Amino acid sequence: MSNLLLLPVLVPFLAGAVLILLRNHPLIQRVSSAVIMTVMLLISIQLLYTITTGGILTVELGNWSPPFGIVLVGDMFASMMVLLTSIVGLACLFFSFQTMARIREKFFFYPFYFFLLTGVNGSFLTGDLFNLFVFFEVMLISSFILIVFGGTPYQLRESYKYVVINVFASGLFLVAIAFIYGATGTLNMAHIAVQVAEMEQQGVINVAAILLLIVFGMKGALFPLYFWLPKSYYGPPAAIAALFGGLLTKVGIYAIIRTFTLIFVHDTAFTHNIILALAGLTMFFGVLGAVSQFDFKRILSYHIISQVGYMVMGLGLFTPLALAGAIYYIAHHIIVKSALFLFAGATQKITGTTDLKKMSGLLKTHPALAWLFFISAISLAGIPPLSGFFSKFALILSGVEEGRYIIVAVSLLVGLLTLFSMMKIFIYVFWGGPSLKRSDYAHIKLLPLLAPIIPLVALTITLGLFAEPIFVFSEGVAAEILDPSIYIDAVLEE
Amino acid sequence: MSLFHFVVLAPFLMAVILPFFYYKFRSIHTGWFLLPLPLVLFLYIATYIPFGGGGMEPVIYSVPWVPSLGIDFTVYIDGLSLLFGLLITGIGTLVVLYSIYYIANKQDEPLQNFYVYLLMFMGAMLGVVFSDNLIVLYVFWELTSLSSSLLIAYWFHKEKSRYGAQKSMLITVSGGFAMLAGFAMLYVIAGSTFSIQEMISQAGTMVQDPLILPAMLLVLAGAFTKSAQFPFHIWLPDAMEAPTPVSAYLHSATMVKAGIYLVARTTPIFGLTQQWFWILVIFGLVTLTWGSISAVRQTDLKGILAFSTVSQLGLIMSLLGMASAALHFEYVDQDTMYVTAAMAAVFHLINHATFKGSLFMAVGIIDHETGTRDVRLLGGLMTIMPVTFTISLIGLAAMAGLPPFNGFLSKELFFTASLNAASFDIFNLQTLGFIIPVFAWIASVFTFVYSMMMFLRTFTGAFKPDNYEKHVHEAPWGLLISPIVLGSLVILFGLFPNMLAYTIIEPAMQSILPGLTSVGDQFYVNIYHWHGINAELLMTIGVVLFGLAVALTLPKLYGAGFFQRERDPLNAVYDTGLDQLVVQSQNITKAQMTGRLRDYMLYMGVFIAGLGLFTLFRYDALAISLEGQGGIPIYVWLVTGVLLACTLALPFVSGRMTNLILLGAVGFLIALLFVILRAPDLALTQLLVETVMVVLILLSFRHLPEMTKESKRLLSTSAKAVVSIAVGTFVTLTALSVHAYRSGADITPISDYFVENSKTLAGGYNMVNVILVDFRGLDTLLEVLVLGVAALGIVTMIKLRMRGGEDV
């Protein structure tokens, strides 16, 4: 029992509410949101530390003991996600200061931003399936607004599809919850896990599991449920796209991993093999999308899909090593993907476009931007010794150990195509003859643009060069989630 | 961390601080700051050479890196890594010196890039050869690919440079990825270790594992792509876009030998299989022949050297294959016959580095001083550039295999080894083995031919000043020092080959073929020119005579057309493959990402219904219980019936008003059902929602656009109908099954608790209200937030209209 666990939800919630009132004071909005975001980062570091050293934290809301009331649960996995949220939240916020049109601040950009984070953090921390639905709603309604934010015709058109598909997913989620409640008579996830274990996960419970997989798969952009993603992420400003690209699908993935390590673990020969197959298809079709595009942001959007496949691959293999790899991968991906979207924004600010064929020769004029991007790009492709390599390596090693050669082959092929498409960006944008005159870009100060991204790039290097502590931590997370009794005991036995 | 770890890391550390020197001391050529490093490293590594000649004890230093994944940074120094370490740092020193004069310190020249890449490469390459841990080796391996690509694209404004860089990266990295999978398999076979030496110690049991063959093929994919073996060699000629010092260093002397290194290093494991022998020999010989024939057709001097490198790498590869045969015999140390191949491989590796390095540098000089490398323009440089001419002559003679240069010695050893291999009584060599010396001989003829032609067309004939844009003269001494050093080594190793015998060659052979000699014993290594008149000598004489004839007649036979198709035909595979990759992925992506919501819903519907129904039937979960259904009054049937009818009618009516009325009817009927089922709160909510909806739509009715007729094709319409019905069926069946399941299971739902306690604990009679505001108050709070955000969002959407492009 610790109220520390409430803060990652409560702080952005209240911050968003207060910032609505400061609509006409952009400077105050900016300063206070920067302060709040920094505080959130400190809180999440403290939370992770507390949980890693002291074990799982729970909060019973309204003092109604589980399974009857809602309970927030912070284990290592959840608090790691909260920390990652704060990191990219901070980076994207600072980037938005540099790049976003001032008019947006008058239209509640910061409140939406913090409400989104409320939903994201809540989704990580909640221990109740229905409450997860509600946090999803908070996240989704904020994301709806942010994705259409600015109201250009393109945004309106694409976010309409985003909204319809996600509302459909929410409807299915509700149906799945109804089924699960119908079969188990409870909503608390730990309690559901107990009931499902007692029933030995028979019959219709598997159907509910699959339905839940589909629902979270829609949020997490799995094959063939990812159609809403690539085009809708192209519309909003880079700071928002970076936050979305890093975080939102990962909430879905988190939910899949949570439910399929805590609850539905009694028939892995069926469920987890389906997950593995979906993982392979997801990464394959995602990367083909990336290969087919010639636009900075679109390539990155498709890569979200392909990368999500790797995380789910770790779950599908369902070994401690593979799950540790998946955990590592999530951390790596959130950081690198956000960084890459921010690079797209920085490049767009300089060149005025995201179309690769209209850019050229930036290595000569903007070497710092070029090399920072290069590091992130090859990290995404899994080139050593950066973070992308070790996470992918753990997955591949586990795949070989288990004799799952097809998925290993697919993941390596996808890695290669990832490299190909990321190199495509590098070749078009940074190599080649100069396309810009000095007067075109001289007024744009590079350092403030890069300042929010540099910490992210530093993280991917650190996560690679000093992989041991990160990997040990990931193994710890994997061990924790692979033993559902730890979570169940923490929630139900008090 | 031992001092030797810093040998590997020093170039990286230097790379970090080098740009500082570049910007701080702009007037001094950055290369000078860097030059001492490889020299010091060379001298330090050289201290490990067993000058006494008493064999070499391997030295190991280890620090953990990622121990939980079995990754330790273990430095392993034995004969093989020592040889490579000396090559990397030694030639590295010469190349840096050469580059200082080759790349002028102009205002715009990004020298810091060049030298940072070069240092990255040097460190990575040292890492590859000194790492005992396969994963550390892999890490450095990919870094060499990366730095190589960056160096190829050093002049990235040139289209060809970018093409070459991308090609080399794609090919070598794809090999690298395959290799990584192979390493993972080796890890599994070896029982959870990545240490090469530990694997070698249990090689006998490892090769019993059925996984060894795929592991071997995958590792070879890495080695072959890196070492430009047929058919992966096509990246190497395009890599010649790199500045010539890079070509001399990476693409002939060191990086392309990383694959050779890996093969030599893993021979003690894989060499125990028969496939290893044949794969290496066949790929090596094909590469050797293909490369040498292709080299003849080149008109670019660097093109000739590139294919020549391909061919020579094939030669070494095939020798390593033959060397592995020794592992299949007992008591080999008594007989040099079995180890000649290993000796030849090591010796030729050294020789190739020296003569090819000097030739690349000479070509660089010619390019630098004349402005062209096209043999059709060149000619008559013998008198104008006498020093360059002499260096080239030595290098070409060695390459062609003429005495008294080192190339002759190793070529003779190659012939000996191939003749020996043909006589072994294993692997069907008695019948098939004859192809080895035959291929060796044919390839040598062409090697002689292109060496000869390169010499003739560059240095002899008439000098035509009009062909050049500059005034042609001999290069400055700075450019000449490095090739002179290498050329001198060619002569030195040619005249005194045995100075290498027990210092370098024998220790390296011990690494390739460990455990064949008894402890403390050594292989017998003695290299000399005159063996009497034997088969090898006759083969060499045949090469010279036949080669001369071909070199003189070939241009006449085929005319100029033969030399115009210089691009390797295999490039077509790569080029169309890459094009098709993009085109096909565009097709596939367009097919799914149609941009039409109805398609997306259709795809998802197929998936949901398909997977859902499959699961339902797979688990035999379909159960419909009619228990407790008897007492349904007639009016409920009636309401439900009308509800169903309204819903079913929806897709068939046209006109927005009719749609609206039907939808409204559905909503109100549901409210009625709620009333019947005694849920007044829900009924009230439903009624409110319906009313508000109707009011809203009526308010905006005037502003809604005309409904456009969808083009209704029967096929797509019926597909949508089928999928919709399937999804609906799935949800309905599951709902019924859940109900049935629930009736059969003994569960106390949490709602019982709410029923019991809403009054006693929460003080409210209306259980629904208590749940909403107390038991699950957080949900309600958040739903309020959702509504609030939606309201704010509507304001934003209405008032904030941007055109796009205002910001990023």
TrEMBL record, chain A:
Domain of life, source organism: Bacteria
Start and end residues of each NADH:quinone oxidoreductase/Mrp antiporter transmembrane domain: 127-417
Any one GO CC term of the record: plasma membrane
Parts of the chain that traverse the membrane: 6-22, 34-57, 77-95, 107-126, 132-151, 163-183, 203-226, 238-257, 269-288, 300-321, 327-347, 368-386, 406-431, 443-467
Keywords: Antiport, Cell membrane, Membrane, Transmembrane, Transmembrane helix, Transport
Intracellular or extracellular location(s): Cell membrane; Membrane
Protein's UniProt name: Na+/H+ antiporter subunit D
Native source organism of the sequence: Alkalicoccus urumqiensis
UniProtKB/TrEMBL annotation, chain B:
InterPro entries the record matches: CPA3_Na-H_Antiporter_A, MrpA/MnhA1/PhaAB, MrpA_C/MbhD, MrpA_C/MbhE, ND/Mrp_TM, Proton_antipo_N
NADH:quinone oxidoreductase/Mrp antiporter transmembrane domain span: 131-426
Membrane topology recorded in Swiss-Prot or TrEMBL: Multi-pass membrane protein
Compartments where found: Cell membrane; Membrane
GO MF, one example: antiporter activity
Domain annotation MrpA C-terminal/MbhE: ranges: 722-803
Domain NADH-Ubiquinone oxidoreductase (complex I) chain 5 N-terminal: 68-115
GO cellular component entries: plasma membrane
Cell membrane as UniProt keyword: yes
First-listed, main subcellular location of the protein, grouped into a coarse class: membrane
Biological processes annotated in GO: proton transmembrane transport; sodium ion transport
A Pfam cross-reference name: MbhE
Keywords of the record: Antiport, Cell membrane, Hydrogen ion transport, Ion transport, Membrane, Sodium, Sodium transport, Transmembrane, Transmembrane helix, Transport
Protein family membership: Belongs to the CPA3 antiporters (TC 2.A.63) subunit A family.
Name this polypeptide is given: Na+/H+ antiporter subunit A
